[in-house]
């Protein structure tokens, strides 16, 4: 297996460098989703460290999907806006990350693991036990799309910064990883705010660490990815990113919220 380590200040910097290194250094692997004509994917084990996940710029323009989709995904992870889509008996979703993190079912009871993290770190900031897991061994081995995110581990350092480390078994580097990183850091911010309110001590957002067992670029979209590589040569880094506070980003985030409102009303 190939291994990569990427360290940087901001989310788009780390994400961009990680997908390029996966392309350059990854091994060739077949996947369970390949068509006969697809070349093998590029695949590596990846450790990505973002030193300041809320430093601007926060958004890479090349992530697949629209800014409105990014806002909707953020709300899926943080607020559970699509938990009502869970209905495996009807052929719909078997889980959401929000449901597994905040309403994990054990012996007929629902466990809010994020609230446990908030409570635990409010009492013992240096605890090594503040974690939330998603894998359900009674369900996930038999479904077509089992949970990729496996675990979140939180800790507060001696400068009152909340670190979040996530473990992902399988991560589409180009088409999913940036949205994952963006949404998971938004949850990190929510947890830091909740601990701050609970304790009366300001807890800020610290490092974000993203570990993927299989960090991959699928052969089915190599042509699209090669187009992305061309833009790296044609545009400066400043032309490849957005500040999350910019007017165009906020306008599209608002459109994402409108889509959710229309969905609820429809």
Question: What does this molecule look like?
Answer:
This protein is of the alpha+beta class and 266 residues long. The protein has one domain: Thymidylate synthase/dCMP hydroxymethylase domain (Thymidylate Synthase, Chain A, 2-Layer Sandwich), CATH 3.30.572.10. Helix content is 38%, strand content 25%. The protein has 7 helices and 11 strands.
CATH superfamily: Thymidylate synthase/dCMP hydroxymethylase domain
CATH topology: Thymidylate Synthase, Chain A
Radius of gyration: 19 Å
Helix and strand run: EHEEEHHEEHEEEHEHEH
- Main β sheet profile: 7 strands, mixed
Total helices: the number is 7
- Portion of residues in beta strands equals 15-25%
CATH hierarchy, class: Alpha Beta
How many strands in all? 11
Short descriptors:
266 residues, alpha+beta, Thymidylate Synthase, Chain A, seven-stranded mixed β-sheet, two-stranded antiparallel ribbon, 7 helices, 11 strands, globular
Question: What's the quick description here?
Answer:
The protein is of the alpha+beta class and 266 residues long.
């Amino acid at each position: 297996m190939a291994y990569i380590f990427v360290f940087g200040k901001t989310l788009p910097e780390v994400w961009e460098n990680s997908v390029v290194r996966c392309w350059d250094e990854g091994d060739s692997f077949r996947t369970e989703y390949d068509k006969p004509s697809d070349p093998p994917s590029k695949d590596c084990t990846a450790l990505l460290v973002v030193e300041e996940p809320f430093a601007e710029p926060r958004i890479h323009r090349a992530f697949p999907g629209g800014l409105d989709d990014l806002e909707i995904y953020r709300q899926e992870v943080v607020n559970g806006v699509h938990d009502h889509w869970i209905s495996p008996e009807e052929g719909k979703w078997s889980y959401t990350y929000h449901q597994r993190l905040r309403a994990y079912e054990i012996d007929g009871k629902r466990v809010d693991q994020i609230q446990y993290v908030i409570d635990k770190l409010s009492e013992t900031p240096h605890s090594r036990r503040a974690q939330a897991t998603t894998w359900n061994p009674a369900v996930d081995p038999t479904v077509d799309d089992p949970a990729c995110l496996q675990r979140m581990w939180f800790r507060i350092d001696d400068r009152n910064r909340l670190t979040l480390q996530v473990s992902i078994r399988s991560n589409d580097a180009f088409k999913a990883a940036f949205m994952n990183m963006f949404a998971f850091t938004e949850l990190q911010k929510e947890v830091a705010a909740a601990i701050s309110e609970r304790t009366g001590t300001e807890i800020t957002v610290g490092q974000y660490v993203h570990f993927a067992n299989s960090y991959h670029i699928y052969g089915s979209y190599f042509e699209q990815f090669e187009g992305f590589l061309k833009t790296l040569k044609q545009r400066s880094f400043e032309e490849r990113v957005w500040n999350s506070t910019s007017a165009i980003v906020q306008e599209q985030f608002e459109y994402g919220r409108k889509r959710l409102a229309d969905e609820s009303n429809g």
